[in-house]
Amino acid sequence: MERKAPYPIERIHALLGRAPYNAPMIQYKNSVGLFYLLVALAVACASPAARAHNIAAGASATHSVSADTADLVLQALGLIGTRYKFGGTSPDVGFDCSGFVRHLFDTTLGRVLPRTSLEMSRLGDKIDRPSLLPGDLVFYNTRRKSFSHVGLYIGEGRFIHAPSKGRAVEIVDMSDRYWVPRFNGARRLLAAFMGPPEPESPNENAASN
Predict the structure, then answer these.
(1) Catalytic residue list contains 161
(2) Catalytic residue among 45, 63, 103, 149
(3) Is 149 a catalytic site residue?
């Protein structure tokens, strides 16, 4: 399988308008073809005027993501290189797969997820692979048991996860021959957390009869 060309980390920082957390580690690990994802994050993180300008200039609306999603993905990217630790739930100790995802949602969105990947697989809305968006959770069978592994989808057919003993948080390609047959499905939690829009309040300035 042909490797996608690296994307310069300096350009990534320029698109985002700031260096992501732990920038040197990101430079070492994750400059692998995330151009469209990072353009989407740049659009999401921009001011309303800048966002409108970027969309008018040709940025695809289908690639835009919410500010919550942008924060979630940036936080995940900043943890690349954190060592794997079975049962780990913090950067200092290390992460296992569900501990990593749980940490992201807790520290970024203030949402506490269940502790296991199986429990997480029951949350939110079921999503098929062609409909994946950054921020969705992807699940795999890595221990001869369905939904035994979880990662965070970041766009461009890739997800970020805490893999296994002796390794560290990394980005992998879903089309890799190891991952394709082990895919169990995906769930979208962010929309469920946001909930339905609040009803408009009556006009307080309306004249009473």
Answers:
(1) yes
(2) 149
(3) yes
